[in-house]
Amino acid sequence: MVGNTNSDSFAGKRVALCVSGGIAAYKAIDVLRGLQKAGCVVRVAMTRRACEFVQPLTFRALSDHHVLVDDYAADNPDPIAHITFSQSVDLIIVAPATANIIAKFANGIADDFITSTYLAAFAPVIVAPAMNTAMWEHPATLRNIARLRADGIHIIEPEHGRMACHTIGAGRLAEPDVIVQAALDVLSSQHSPSQVSSSPNPSSTMNINGFDFTGERVLITTGATREAIDPVRFISNHSSGRMGFALAQAAHARGAHVTVIAGITSVAPPAGIRLVRVASADEMHHAVMKEIERSTVFIAAAAVADYRPRERHAHKIKKNGDRSLTLHLEPTIDILASVAAHPSRPTNDLIVAGFAAETSDLIRHARTKLEKKNLDLIIANDVTREGAGFNHDTNIVTLLARDRIDAPRELPLMSKLETAHRILDEIKRLHPSHTHIEHDLGIESRL
Ligand code: PMT
Fold first, then answer.
1. Contact 179, 91 (CB under 8 A)
2. Helix (H, G, I), strand (E, B) or coil at 277
């Protein structure tokens, strides 16, 4: 269902609808109609392959404009159309976007009208992929999608369902009204002064979810804690901070005010967030507790030590011949459980999400943590899987929400940024009323 389609609000908005060659090309007709209904002026461009699925004449008749396929075609009234066209529109939508065109965009290849238009454009771009499930889940496509997201492109996730190739899975083009609504959200955000950004790539701060975390105050822990044994030795783990920083980047891009409490990390934090550095579990606990009352979402991505040495030696422990050394460990405080039990949780409507880093029996352990710690969401992370867990740019996680405890949702291998967006989508699903609310907490709402 398209929400805001008041034709006055979008009258005169110029949209380029680019159709690439997939079976879903016929759905672009409904996207065209929906945009026109909202008052937009739509010009259509097609790849040569797309013309095999739908005749350019159909789009020409409906859009009342010449359909661009080839800059250099004899019937093209503008010989440098990819420049004029790309720089005279307010928005570019690519629907359906094939794996091929996504790969070209991700790599800056400009070998036809649409890919040249993409490179020459200043306007925001929405990409709505559609392809066979195996192609959609292929690491190459996931890499390319992550690249496009990082370039500030708005991705409309394909849907899950029966495919033209008679298989069932993810890869169906999103419904036309979803694409139209996303387009209207992006067009609306263009003339909203509150969304002007100082980011070097303004479009990367816009989101297809329409800044759906605006007003949220997201608190994230990330990285490893370090528990001192003596002045030179410590207990720690392999966490790099990538997963938590990816969550911070995604939440910031979706309009949230983000604070990260980072332990020891080996990667740079994203721009635009507030960062508090700590080392031990105890310091992380204190820093989190100072922030929690003003937070609306808490995500614990840090790898926190469960135990620390009972005593910290003031001087370096000396080697004592061949005699063994016994270290006595005591449990650290569980930060996540303390947040979940915090008295302000009901008042703030705080959403509490944690990770479960496991090496066996993933779902059973994750479910136990969700229940024992009283969480809204647990992100189960089998850190033994190739491409998952510590120190990779990618992850493979399973989402287990409190209201779907018997229906874990495994996500395929994807970049940590993409994983972060899926986690935020799940948080939004768990608490839709959290969206678009400016929480009045008496404190500055954006940095
Ligand atoms: O940082 P990267 O290199 O990108 O790696 C990402 C990651 C593997 C660290 C991340 O995806 C992940 O799985 N983080 C959780 C690691 C962990 O400590 O899991 P756990 O199952 O031991 O703990 C469960 C939850 O309780 C976690 O959310 C943890 O942050 C939290 N916890 C644990 C102990 C403690 N004392 N306090 C806590 O808050």
1. no
2. strand
Q: Give the Cα separation of 32 and 20 in Å (integer).
A: 14
**CA 402 – ligand 1 centroid, Å:** 18
- Is the sign of the CA dihedral 19, 21, 24, 25 positive or negative? positive
Pocket of ligand 1 (CB under 6 A): 221, 239-243, 281, 300-304, 306, 332, 334-336, 354-357, 369, 381, 383, 389-391
Active site residues: 165
Give whichever of 59-73, 139-153, 324-338 has the largest mean pLDDT: 324-338
Give 169 Cα–ligand 1 centroid separation in angstroms: 30
- For residue 446, CA distances in Å to 13, 180, 205, 224 come to 30, 29, 13, 27
Q: 224-279: per-residue pLDDT in tens?
A: 999 999 999 999 999 999 999 999 988 988 878 899 999 999 988 876 678 899 99
**Peptide bond preceding 77: is omega within 30 degrees of 0, i.e. cis?**
no
Q: Ligand 1 pocket test: pick from 236, 336, 382 the residue with the most ligand atoms within 8 Å of its Cβ.
A: 336
Å from CA of 378 to ligand 1 middle:
11
What distance in Å separates the CA atoms of residue 108 and residue 7, rounded to the nearest whole number?
35
